[in-house]
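Appendix B. Chain record.
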Amino acid sequence: MALNALLYGGIAGAATLLGILVVLWQRDLAVKYSHYINSFAAGALVTISLVHLVPEAIELASNALLVVLLSFIAFYLLETAIVFHSGSEIHYAQGERHSKAPVIFSGLFLHSLIDGFIITVGFEVSTELGLFAAAGVILHELPEGVTSFALLLRSMSRRTALGLSIAVALATPVGAAIALGSLGALTESGLGVMMAIAAGSFLYVAASDLIPETHEKSALPNAISLLIGVGFLYLLSSLFE
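C-alpha cells predicted for this chain:
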C-alpha cells in the first residue's frame, strides 16, 4: 500500500509538472484548450465519486452521505476564502494583472496536499479504489499545473513562478507520505469517513470549477469531452470488476 501511494502520488505531481512544461512550451495554446481537459476530468471525477468512492464509503461508515455533504460545503467555504482550482482561476485572471499570487499559491498547495491524502486513503481501502482515486487526482492535476503556472506568471518573474508551481506539484506526494504516517490508527468507520471526504472533494471540484468550463465556449465539444470522461472511467470500472 505504501509503495503504491507514494508511486501514484509522485505520478500526480508529475502531471502537474507536465502542465507547467506545456505552459513553458506554448502558454497561450495551453490555456486556450485547457477547457477540453477540464471537461474530460469533470466527467471522470463525477464517475469516480459516485461509482466508487461514495458506495465504498457507505459500506464502511453509516454517516458517509452526511460527510460527503459536509465535505462539499467545507470545500465551498474554503474556496470562498482562497481562490484555487483551474476553472475559477482562469475566469478571475482574464483581462487583468493578478495581484493575489500568494493567496493562489497557498490554496493550490493546500489542495495538492489533500490530493495526496486522497490517494493514500484509497490504497488503504483497496488497490482498486486506490487506482481510481489516483486517476481522479492525476486527471485534474494536469490542468491545475497549466493554470497555476500561467496565473503566477502574471504577477511575478518566470523563475519565481516556476519555483512555486514545482512546490505545488511536490505537495501531492508529500501529502501522500504524511497520510501514510497517520492512517494506521484509523478504524474501518474512520476510513469510510475519509473516503466520503474524498468523494465530496471530487464532486466539488467537478461541479464548481470544471463543469462550468463546459458552458463557456465550444459547448458541444466540451459536452462530448465530459461524456467521454464518464464513459472511459465507467468502462474502466467494469473491466476492474
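Further analysis of this model is presented in Appendix C.
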